[in-house]
Amino acid sequence: MQDRDFIRDKTNDVLDGSAVTPQEAERLLFTNELLTLAECANTITRDYNANKVDVETLLNAKSGSCPESCSFCAQSSFYDSKINTYPLLATEVVLQRAQAAKEGGASSFCLVCAYRAPPEKDFQQICETIAEITEKVGIDVNVSLGFMTPLRARKLKSLGVKRYNHNLEAAESYFSKICKTHDFADRMKTAQIVKDAGLELCCGGIIGMGETPQQRIELGFSIASLRPEEVPVNILVAQQGTPLAQVSQISEDDVIRLIAVWRFIMPTTILKIGGGRELHLKDKGRLALKAGANGLITGGYLTVGGDSPHKDLRMIHEIGLHT
Ligand code: SF4
After folding, report:
1. Which residue among 75, 81, 88, 181 has the greatest number of ligand 1 atoms within 8 angstroms of its CB, and so is best to mutate?
2. Can you tell me which atom of ligand 1 is nearest the CA of 75?
3. Which pLDDT does position 44 carry in this prediction?
4. Residues 146 and 118: beta-carbon distance below 8 Å
5. For residue 233, what are the contacts with CB-CB under 8 A and spacing of at least 6?
6. How close is the Cα of 157 to the center of ligand 1, in Å?
7. Ligand 1 lining (C-beta closer than 6 Å)
8. How many domains does the chain have?
9. Is residue 7 part of a domain?
10. CB count, 10 Å around CB of 218?
11. Closest CA to 267 of 13, 4, 34, 9
12. Of 201, 270, 197, 218, whose CA–CA distance to 50 is shortest?
């Protein structure tokens, strides 16, 4: 069967509720018919998720000095990456940022902290901050605090946290190359604790870290097995001082391909273009939202800046989508 017919065939299968297999996903990933692939991923997105784009703002509420060795991360204490590090931000500061996110048009606000897991004192302060945001700002609160226990996950649920972010980061077969202080199973375990507590799960990964295209497919299927409500696709922004500082850059077309194929693998999820969008996709950020993605992070990331909410909202409306 010709590639174009194969892609259309698989699109119809996904629209009928069937899953693609890893072998089929691989054939989709290697197709020369990139425009057909993108168009079909868009058809699946519109069918399952209509025209809505989920726009999220992040706040790095505790930066750097993380005891983990993730080799892509400028916040790891293992590397000399010269980022601005600071302890947990005061509740009033976080409240102001949540308010600004809401006024800027974001539908959710994600409070991110660089920990293996927060010390108890910080966890209590974070809980108080979440309660204040829920009461005074009225925006969906998501958090990302590292490894979770069932007790802490239930506490976050009771405070009204909507979604917990915990990325798998890399394929299981590549994970030991990017981190020595914890393993893939540790990440799967926290993701499962989050689900068991009744929180929505945001779980994605990073591409362009030197993995093979097949490992990107492998990662997609591992993420899909957790049935996350949201999946961020981050594209490595090589940070000076980290072991991945010199890794060669992934092409724009390969990013679009991957987003489209992950849409075939996970037809109903919010597939969000995360860190690296502005650097790697440039104007193809628009294409990504017509090739399977239906979410983006606006206003910057944890250690690098990004496009303003105003610019992103205008782009979303210009391509006929809405927030
Ligand atoms: S990715 Fe998370 S766990 Fe890993 S070093 Fe960075 S902040 Fe720490």
Report:
1. 75
2. 6
3. 97
4. yes
5. 204, 205, 207, 255, 258, 259, 262, 271, 272, 273, 274, 293
6. 23
7. 66, 68, 70, 73, 75-76, 114, 146
8. 1
9. no
10. 20
11. 13
12. 270
Distance 52 CA to ligand 1 centre (A): 31
Which residue in 308, 282, 302, 257 sits closest to 105, CA to CA? 308
Asked whether residue 310 is domain-assigned, the answer is yes
Largest CA-CA distance found in the chain, in angstroms, rounded: 60
10-residue mean pLDDT profile of the chain (323 residues): values are 93 95 97 95 96 86 92 91 89 90 81 94 96 89 95 96 96 96 97 97 96 97 97 91 88 94 97 80 78 84 64 84 85
Look at ligand 1, atom 2, and give the residue with the nearest C-alpha.
Answer: 114
Give the domain extent around 96: 36-318
How far is Cα 46 from Cα 289, in angstroms, rounded to an integer? 11
- Does 9 fall in a domain? no
Cα torsion angle, 130, 136, 138, 139, sign: negative
C-beta neighbour count of 258 within 10 angstroms: 24
CATH of the domain at 295: 3.20.20.70
Whether residue 26 lies inside any domain: the answer is no
Q: Which residue, by CA, sits nearest to atom 7 of ligand 1?
A: 114
